[in-house]
Amino acid sequence: MKSLYVIKIGGNVIDNSENLYNFLKDFTALDGHKILIHGGGKIATQMSEQLGIEAKLIDGRRITDIETLRVVTMVYAGLINKNIVAQLQRFGTNAIGLTGADGNFIKATKRPVKTIDYGYVGDLDSQSVNAENISKLLEAGFTPAFCALTHDGDGQMLNTNADTIASAIAIALANYYDTTLIYCFEKKGVLKDINDEESLIREINPVRYDELKKEQIIHSGMLPKLDNAFAAISCGVKAVVIGKSDELGKLGNNQPFGTRLSN
Ligand SMILES: Nc1ncnc2c1ncn2[C@@H]1O[C@H](COP(=O)(O)OP(=O)(O)O)[C@@H](O)[C@H]1O
Ligand SMILES: CC(=O)N[C@@H](CCC(=O)OP(=O)(O)O)C(=O)O
C-alpha cells in the first residue's frame, strides 16, 4: 500500500503567520500523498465578535445558530481555506481547497437536540467520508485541504470540529493507504506539565490515557483530541502522533516528534 499523511492544524497555528509559513513549508517537504485539515475556531470567534455576534462554546464545541453558520462559512471555507491553498501553491503543493460539500466528500448528520441545541453542527459516522473519491483526487496529483465544514446532503452546510474530520478521513482512507494521522498544534505534544515544554510524554496507550485524565494532566481541548486520536488507532490507522507544528520537519528526517499513541 502507498503511504498517506492526514495532518490537522488548529487555530493557534493558523493565527500566527510565521508558524503557518513554517508549517506549510514542512508539510510540502513531506514525501507521499497528503491531506490537510484545518480548524480556525479562534479566528471565527474574533470575527463573530467584530460582527457583534456573541460566540458561545460548550466543551470546545461551538453553538452554531444561523448567524454563526454564516460567519464560520465565510471564515473557514473562504478566508482561511483560500489563504492556506494560495500559500501551499507558492511552495509547490498543488492544493485544492474543500468543504465536505464539495464533491460530496463528507456528509454529516445535524446533531440531534438533547439537553443542548448545538444548532448547525454536524456529526460524522463510519459512512460519512467518501474515501474512494478522495483517493481519486490524490491519485490525480492534488493535495486536498479540508476546512471544518460538512453538509447534510439536503442543502444544509454544517459546522464540524476539525479534529473529528481529520480522524474520520484517516479512518476511511486507511482502507486505501498506510495512513498516519498527525495533529499539529502549538505545543510539543501531550505534556506532563502544560507550562513545561520539556515535559513531553513520548507515548500514550489507553491505560495511561485513563491515568492522565484522572490526574487531570490532560484536560480541555486535549480530551476530545485524544478521543479522536484513539478512535483512529483502533480503526486501522497505522500511526497517530500529536506534535508541534514547527517541528513537523523532524518527521521527514526520522527524528523523534511529538507524542505517539499506541494500542
Ligand atoms: N497535557 C496537556 N498537554 C498539552 N496540551 C494540553 C494538555 N492538557 C490540555 N491541553 C490543552 O489542549 C490544547 C489543545 O487543544 P485545542 O485547543 O483543541 O487544539 P487545536 O489548537 O488543535 O484546536 C492546548 O492548547 C492546551 O491548552
Ligand atoms: C462544531 C465546532 O465546534 N466546530 C469548530 C470548527 C473549527 C475547529 O475545529 O477549529 P480548531 O481546530 O482551531 O479548534 C468551531 O467552530 O470552533
From TrEMBL:
Pathway membership, UniProt: Amino-acid biosynthesis; L-arginine biosynthesis; N(2)-acetyl-L-ornithine from L-glutamate: step 2/4
One cellular component term from this protein's GO annotations in UniProt: cytoplasm
Subcellular location: Cytoplasm
Database matches in SUPFAM superfamilies: Carbamate kinase-like
Top-level EC class as recorded in UniProt: transferase
Domain Aspartate/glutamate/uridylate kinase: 5-242
Alphabetical UniProt keywords: Amino-acid biosynthesis, Arginine biosynthesis, ATP-binding, Cytoplasm, Kinase, Nucleotide-binding, Transferase
Binding site for substrate: 40-41, 62, 159
E.C. number: 2.7.2.8
A Pfam entry, by short name: AA_kinase
Molecular functions (GO terms): acetylglutamate kinase activity; ATP binding
Catalytic reactions of this protein: N-acetyl-L-glutamate + ATP = N-acetyl-L-glutamyl 5-phosphate + ADP
GO BP term (any one): L-arginine biosynthetic process via ornithine
Transition state stabilizer (site feature) positions: 8, 225
Gene3D superfamilies: Acetylglutamate kinase-like
Function: Catalyzes the ATP-dependent phosphorylation of N-acetyl-L-glutamate.
Family under the similarity heading: Belongs to the acetylglutamate kinase family. ArgB subfamily.
Name assigned to this protein: Acetylglutamate kinase
Protein species of origin: Mucilaginibacter aquatilis
GN (gene name): argB
